[in-house]
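Revision sheet: structure tokens.
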Amino acid sequence: MKAAAQRVRARPATTMEIQIPQGTAPGATLQVRAPDGRTVKVRVPPNLRAGQRMRISVPTALEKAAEETCGRVPPAAVKALAGKMMACARRITTRTSS
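Predicted:
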């Protein structure tokens, strides 16, 4: 079971570069369109100004969903879902390794 779990990997976050729009102050929050079409919020660091470029990390849709629901879902439900996801991962891993 542990070996199967180790073989299942989440897709890494996407890294992209954006230009800070004119009129944007350090500390402001920007809404950026991710490559998959989602809108993500990004805070401008205090050391950057309008016109400069910055590299941001865009979480995968699964990471974003987990972040948004954390704390709102009862722990028992999270544990049950995690168990189902691990069972699914084992089935997928078993199929692809045979």
